[in-house]
Amino acid sequence: MSEVNVTIEKIEGNELVIREGHALAVLPKDVLKVTGTIGVPFAYIEKRKATINPENAVVEVDYEKRHIKFLQDQYDSLSPIVAGFIVLDPDLQKWEIGTTKTRSSKDLALMIKSNRLMFESIELATRLVTIFEDLKVKVEREIQDKDDHRGNIQKTQA
Fold this sequence. Notes:
The chain is an alpha+beta fold. Among the domains are: 33-85; 90-144. It has four helices and six strands; from the N terminus they run βββαβββααα. The strands form two sheets. It has a four-stranded mixed sheet, covered by helices on one side. The model has no long low-confidence stretch (mean pLDDT 81).
């Protein structure tokens, strides 16, 4: 039997790395970080249900920042971190969708009319404008014609 000289290069945690001859250097382990759209954490969990221990897993939701973060094992420093974000389109931000701002049907019709190019077709935008402009007339007529069939007819002044 021939003698083999073995050099112990690095001991990390409970791991012993033994090298023989010329080999590549040992790289430190790093945390897997995955970032994507808001559905990425859910897709990650769906594909790895069998390997995830729910008692050690953590899901953080930040409504203000529109962010979801999934940590597979909170006790493992090398546990994967999967994050999902919602990034609002600047064109849609000016519509203030999802905020507490309210608009009348007339204001909506005006907004759609001035932003026709954001729609799939100009015909669709025009049709929406017509619907919103006619909405007020229809609601007013229904209020004026309200009858509870008990002899009580509600009359409103225009």
